[in-house]
Amino acid sequence: MNLFKKSIAAVALVTLVSSVFTTGVSAYSTSEIEAANTLAQAGVIVDQSANPAAYNLDQNVLRQEIAAVARGVAGLDKKTTCDGVFTDVSATTPNTWACLSVEALADAGLIAKNAQFRPEANISKAEAVGMVVKAAFGDAYAYDATLGTTWQEQVVAFAVTNGVVSSFTNYDTAATRGFVFEAAANAMSSTEDEEMDDIICTLLGTCNTDTEDNTDTEDNTDVTTPVVTGGNVEVTLNPASPAAMNIPRTAANVEYLVFDITAGSSDVSISEVVLQRVDLGSRDDFDKVWLSRDGVVVSTSKTIASDDTVTIPLNLTVKAGSTETLTVNASMKATGTKINAFQVIDVKSSANLKLSNLRGNSMTTVDYTVAQVTLNPKATGGSTVDVGSENKIL
Fold first, then answer.
1. pTM score
2. How far is it, in rounded angstroms, from Cα 384 to Cα 272?
C-alpha cells in the first residue's frame, strides 16, 4: 500500500474511532475501511474517506449496488442509455443509475440476461464472490460439474486461491457492503499484480511457458480451502480459529488465530512466521506474542514492532503429506475497550509461498467486574461453622 493510501486510511480510522466510542455503533475492520477508500480512489464508489461511517460497511449490499462495484472491477464504462434488458431495471426503475451498470455487465457477458435482475434484493456471500470473480478474472474461472462439488464451493475456492477472500462456508449468508468492498479491492489488486508480472517477465524474457509447470498450476484448482498456496506447501485458516469475542484486558494467554501448514510431495522447513496486528486497537495493547502447537509453546515470545508487525522465528519441519497446526497466542496489557486481530503476512520456508489474506477474527478487550458476596455463616445451633464442615445448614 502506498503512502497516500496509508494516510487516507489513518485519517479514516481516527474519525471512525471517535464515532465508535462516542455513539456506540459497531466497529468496522481496518481492512474494510481501507478497501472502501481504495475503491473510492479508483472511482468505483463514492468517496466517504472523510466520514467512513457513511460507507455503511455493516449493511447488507443490494444486487444493484454490487453491479456497480463489479462494473468498476471489470473496468467497464457505464452505458449511456438503457435497452430494457431486464423487466425490473429501466432508466427510472428502481432509480436512475442502476440500469447503466447492470446492463453494462449483461452486454459484456458477465451476468446472465434473465427476465429479471431483482435490483433491490440482497445478495448472498457466494453470489457476491461469483460476480466479483467473473468481473476480475473473466473466463479464468468456470464451474466444473465433474468435480462433484457445488458451484458455491468452487467459486469460493477460486477466490480464496487468488487472494480475493478468506475461506468461508456460510455461502447463503447475505453479503455486507464491507465484505463486498474488501473482495472487490483484493480482486483488483490481484489482477493488477498479475498484469505487472506479465509485463516484467516479458521485458526480461523470463516468462515461464513450460507445459509441465502449467499442468501443476491447473492441478492446484482441485484444492477447495487454501488461503496461501505456493510450490509444495499450503497455509490455510483452521476451522477451529477462534470466533470474535470479548476478552479480559489483562488476559495472560489469548488465542487469536489458528492456521494449518500442509506440505505436498516433499518436506518443508519453516523458519519464520510474520504476523501483523490489525483493527482499531494498537500494539501497546499487547505484552508478548508467540506460537504454540497442541497447547505447547514452540517459539520465543516477541513484542509487536512500531509498524504493527511481529516476526517470530520458528524451527519447524512439516513432513511430506502432513499438516502442522499452529496457534497465535498473546498476553494483553490493554487499558479499556480495544479491538485487535492478527493476520499472517509472511511465512519463510524452503518452498515458494504466495501469501494472500489469512486474517483471524477480532477480539475486544473489556473490563470485567466479578461479583463479591460476604457470608457470615452460623450453624443451626449457633456454633461457628469450620471450613471443611459438611452437611451444615447456613
1. 0.47
2. 61
